[in-house]
Predict the 3D structure of the following.
Amino acid sequence: MKDLAAKLRALELYDESLIERLPEIINRMDDEIKDAILDWLDNKIEKEITIHDVSFSLLKECEMDTINAYLALDWVKREPEEAISALKSEFYPVFEYFLNK
């Protein structure tokens, strides 16, 4: 977990309180999504994942950073109705365009 925190710290995207919590959050995630985050942290490879018609690339189109996009996908997998509703209200124009194609 310390290694993971160090990698997150190196990104210079998050404050220290979030960096302390993120490793635990990431370790509880769905395995496929967790592996994608870890691969991105190690190799900067963004894996395309789609869950309930919500894709990683759609979330990136909404200007989410990589980790937040994967966190959102994990939420969609765990609580699809609540997560998709919240994401639609936050990013309505982009979601309506892509989800209604």
Observations:
- Residues 2-99 form one domain.
- The beta strands are 50-51, 54-55.
- The chain is about 70% helix and 5% strand.
